[in-house]
């Protein structure tokens, strides 16, 4: 019995060490560790989004552990939410969270992928909570690919050279800002 306990203990320790190494490796590659979105920030994001049309496509770029995408799926049950994440451990945690909350893939899907390569052309709403370097890389991608009229909600960091429609300060201890943008491919609205 003692040998079985030792084998199980060492196996569990090895699994935990492997998961930690995977998180550290992806954090080094990404330049940041995944951070769950706090409750006050999630509430502010939901309030700033307001109402969405049924069947809207929502993409969370860099979905991390999936807490924000999960809340988006609950708040907008007639919409489809896709979380894009390149780090394996947070992605697996997201999928486990989705399974535990019994949300079908028709409503919520977590994909492993590069958020800079994702085709944002069909997204009605893009939500992101990324570090400044990633936001600088994502800005031209969204300018090129996001469809006209879609909205972008960015937590904490603004999009460079874009004028937000609104900026809301959360009630959390960091006084986190939530920026809301609208993609406008035709900045000159000429009427005849």
TrEMBL record:
Domain Methyltransferase: 58-139
PANTHER family according to UniProt: FI06469P, METHYLTRANSFERASE DOMAIN-CONTAINING PROTEIN
Gene3D superfamilies on file: Vaccinia Virus protein VP39
Pfam families membership: Methyltransf_25
Membrane-spanning parts: none
Family matches, as InterPro entries: FAM173A/B (IPR026170), Methyltransf_25 (IPR041698), SAM-dependent_MTases_sf (IPR029063)
Domain of life of the organism encoding this protein: Bacteria
Keyword terms: Methyltransferase, S-adenosyl-L-methionine, Transferase
Designated name of the protein: Methyltransferase domain-containing protein
